[in-house]
Amino acid sequence: MTLVPNVHEAEPIPAAARDAIDALMKSGDLFRYTAPQDAPVALLETEFAELLGTKYALAVSSCSAALFLSLKALGLPRDARVLIPGFTFAAVPSSIVHADCIPVLCEVGDNYRVDVADFAAKLDSVQAVIISHMRGHTSDIDAIMELCDALDIPVIEDAAHSLGTTWHGRNIGTIGKVGCFSFQSYKMINAGEGGILVSDDADLVAQAVIMSGAYEHNWKKHSGSSELEQAFAKWQNRLPLYNLRMSNLSAAVIRPQIPELARRVRDGLANHDYVADRLNTSPYIDVPAPLAPEQRAPDSIQFNLVDLNDEEIRAFAAAAEARGVKVQVFGMSQDNARAFWNWQFLPEQFDLPQTRAMLMKACDVRLPVRLTREELDVIADILLASIGEVVGPMPVYGT
């Protein structure tokens, strides 16, 4: 009998990382700027830019730090308004507040993607946009970019959950002016903490590098073009330092996982689609389909509960947890960091009835890419049985 898997347990870190960590521990050289060149963080930046197909990458302490630095590098005035989806993680509006800007929230549909009509209606009142591809669900980035380009509004992609996702074959995170990724424990590449931003804009990257903590002339240790070097010279001594650097230790953990990414993306998508097909056999569960141009890289699954009231939704979550599978219902917690009404630090509050209704029935279950087919069946069986416990036996058709 297959036991309920521990979905919070990640894949082992590759042995090559352990070897690199041992070498670093012997040298004590954990600071990214000690070595004159080819420090682990610098090598990670080169490899990640090549992976994504961008000119530049900057590794930092978290994806939140990457978002913050991206906003600061845009040169936005104090109290600039930044449009974001109403369904995202609290770190996104937090990065906007830290950058002395004001988050503006737009509606999100039942498929977890930006409501383009509401987005368009609010766009002329903002100076920048952060598009969160929340839980790896890509909004209609073609429509978003067309609207933003027409008004010359810069777009930052929060691709924390989207490493390996493509849109018309193009890597998510490379479509806007800058893309930000996460290496937190529950992401496709796991360093516990860490983030990275990518861009083709030399001036933006030069500012982000200096503000990340490349004091004095440490920016010279960032490989790049003559265009980047000219931008460094322009901004030298003109920017505050926020000291959001990544350490060599984190980079040593990340780099050996990059060759594993393609396999993880393949396995994660197969796992997701297998469980989605099983869950969609229930009339009470709906797993939204991807948009046509999107090739996802999931390590979790989201689904909506259909025709269940709040009491039944809570009963379903409790039944699943009792069987060993934790279901997060985004809107059913007083402190869930993905429910916009819990962001009481916002300078302005927003009423998003469509997004609120979605969050009250939207469920989230982790599906690590390492799970076997038998373990996936255990999870699907538990979720379907828990629905059955709440609504009664499933009807059998065709008999």
SSE layout and pairing:
Blueprint: H1 15-27, H2 40-52, E1 56-60, H3 63-73, E2 81-85, H4 91-98, E3 102-106, H5 116-123, E4 128-132, H6 141-150, E5 155-158, E6 166-167, E7 170-171, E8 178-182, E9 195-199, H7 202-213, H8 226-235, H9 248-254, H10 261-279, E10 285-286, E11 294-295, E12 300-305, H11 310-322, E13 328-329, H12 353-359, E14 362-366, H13 373-391
Parallel strand pairs: 2-3, 2-4, 4-5, 5-8
Antiparallel strand pairs: 1-9, 6-7, 6-11, 8-9, 10-12, 12-14, 13-14
Helix pairs in contact: 1-9, 2-9, 3-4, 3-7, 5-6, 7-8, 10-13, 11-13
Keywords: Pyridoxal phosphate
InterPro entries: DegT/StrS_aminotransferase, PyrdxlP-dep_Trfase, PyrdxlP-dep_Trfase_major
Active site: 187 (proton acceptor)
Main features:
single chain, 399 residues, alpha/beta, Aspartate Aminotransferase, domain 2, Aspartate Aminotransferase, domain 1, 4-stranded antiparallel β-sheet, 13 helices, 14 strands, 38% helix, transaminase activity, DegT/StrS_aminotransferase, pyridoxal phosphate
Description:
There is one protein chain. The protein is of the alpha/beta class and 399 residues long. It folds into two domains: 15-259, Type I PLP-dependent aspartate aminotransferase-like (Major domain) (Aspartate Aminotransferase, domain 2), CATH 3.40.640.10; 260-391, Alpha-Beta Complex (Aspartate Aminotransferase, domain 1). Helices cover 38% and strands 14% of the residues. The chain contains 13 helices and 14 strands. It has helices spanning 15-27, 40-52, 63-73, 91-98, 116-123, 141-150, 202-213, 226-235, 248-254, 261-279, 310-322, 353-359, 373-391; strands at 56-60, 81-85, 102-106, 128-132, 155-158, 166-167, 170-171, 178-182, 195-199, 285-286, 294-295, 300-305, 328-329, 362-366. A seven-stranded mixed β-sheet has the order 1-9-8-5-4-2-3, sandwiched between helices. Strands 10-12-14-13 form a four-stranded antiparallel β-sheet. Strands 7-6-11 form a three-stranded antiparallel β-sheet, with no helix packed on it. Strand 6 and strand 7 form a beta hairpin. Helix 1 runs antiparallel to helix 9, helix 7 (202-213) crosses helix 8 (226-235) and helix 11 (310-322) crosses helix 13 (373-391). The longest helix has 19 residues, at 261-279. The radius of gyration is 22 Å and the shape is globular. The two termini are 30 Å apart. The model has no long low-confidence stretch (mean pLDDT 95).
